[in-house]
């Protein structure tokens, strides 16, 4: 009798608990909880991309079909801004300069960063200090970098020309010569960005197992053979990332450095497309025209990125077979 009474008591206590659980609704499965957690973690980043990238990009495309005055009036002109862009020789000159800038900057930056990554991977005394020193220019504002190098490259009082005169050479007008100014901008950008991509390459190099190099050494492979057969193939994903990001940065970045260092001169010799777009928008109030050129530049960037994806196969290890 006592056992029967105990069972009845347990059932009576369990009934309210089951009713309470049922009133709370069905519990989420583990998969749904993981999806919910992932969504919550991604929400701030997605919201930021929407607010600061996607929506402004769409608005810029819409704005490119209007003639915008400095007083805030909008007039629909359809493809008028794009037709104006096609007939604008200064815009196409800036595109040519941008093309030359990208073609020179990206390979030089890639090679220098890879070489530095290989160098700082070595276990030598004080290597941490060298890594920090090489990375430091990247964290400095480009405005500060522009002021610094404008002072160093000054024709009369710059440290570079003073050192050249002390060595018996004639000084150069580094920022005043159309044939030298763009090269100086490229050199400064390499100096600024090489530390960041050096760290990226260093991370990729440290992911390669040491056993591969030990086996190659036992087979009699020298440093060049080890690099060609082990390092370079296994760095494909990292190389793809560096190539893509440096190309995008070269096309869309450098505005503040150009503004401070050369202001697009001399004779528009350093007027990159991004700088010309900035001039039209904020110098002359041609917001609709600047939006049209910006949309065209984004299209070119997307096409170049697609070509990089195609020819590098996205940095995959396989041969695409």
TrEMBL record:
Composition-biased stretches (Low complexity): 12-23
Pfam families to which the protein is assigned, alphabetical: BPD_transp_1 (PF00528)
Disordered, as annotated region: 1-26
InterPro entries assigned to the protein according to its UniProt record, in alphabetical order: ABC_transporter_permease, MetI-like, MetI-like_sf
Regions that span the bilayer: 35-66, 99-120, 132-152, 180-203, 240-261, 287-309
Membrane topology value: Multi-pass membrane protein
Source superkingdom: Bacteria
GO cellular component, one term: plasma membrane
Gene Ontology BP annotations: transmembrane transport
Location(s) in or outside the cell: Cell membrane
Ranges of residues in domain ABC transmembrane type-1: 95-308
Keyword vocabulary terms for this entry: Cell membrane, Membrane, Transmembrane, Transmembrane helix, Transport
Assigned protein family: Belongs to the binding-protein-dependent transport system permease family.
UniProt-recorded name of the protein: Sugar ABC transporter permease
Record lineage: Bacteria, Bacillati, Actinomycetota, Actinomycetes, Kitasatosporales
């Amino acid at each position: 009798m006592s056992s029967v009474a105990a069972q009845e008591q347990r059932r009576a206590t369990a009934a309210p608990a089951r009713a309470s659980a049922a009133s709370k609704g069905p519990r989420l499965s583990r998969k749904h909880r993981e999806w919910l957690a992932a969504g919550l973690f991604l929400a701030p980043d997605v919201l930021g991309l929407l607010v600061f990238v996607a929506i402004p990009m769409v608005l810029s495309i819409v704005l490119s079909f209007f003639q915008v005055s400095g007083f805030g009036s909008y007039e629909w002109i359809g493809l008028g801004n794009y037709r104006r862009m096609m007939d604008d020789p200064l815009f196409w000159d800036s595109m040519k300069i941008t093309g030359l800038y990208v073609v020179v900057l990206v390979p030089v930056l890639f090679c220098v960063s890879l070489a530095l990554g290989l160098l700082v991977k070595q276990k030598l005394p004080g290597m941490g200090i060298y890594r920090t020193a090489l990375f430091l220019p990247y964290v400095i504002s480009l405005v500060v970098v522009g002021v610094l190098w404008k002072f160093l490259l000054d024709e009369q009082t710059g440290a570079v020309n003073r050192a050249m005169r002390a060595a018996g050479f004639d000084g150069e007008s580094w920022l005043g010569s159309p044939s030298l100014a763009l090269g100086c901008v490229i050199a400064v950008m390499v100096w600024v960005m090489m530390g960041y991509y050096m760290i990226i390459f260093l991370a990729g190099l440290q992911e390669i197992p040491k056993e591969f190099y030990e086996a190659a050494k036992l087979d009699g492979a020298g440093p060049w053979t080890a690099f060609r057969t082990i390092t370079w193939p296994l760095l494909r994903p990292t190389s793809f990332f560096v190539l893509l990001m440096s190309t995008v940065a070269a096309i869309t970045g450098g505005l503040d450095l150009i503004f401070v260092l050369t202001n697009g001169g001399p004779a528009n010799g350093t007027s990159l497309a991004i700088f010309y777009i900035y001039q039209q928008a904020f110098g002359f109030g041609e917001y609709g025209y600047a939006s049209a050129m910006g949309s065209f530049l984004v299209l070119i960037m997307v096409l170049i990125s697609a070509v990089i994806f195609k020819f590098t196969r996205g940095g995959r290890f396989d041969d695409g077979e």
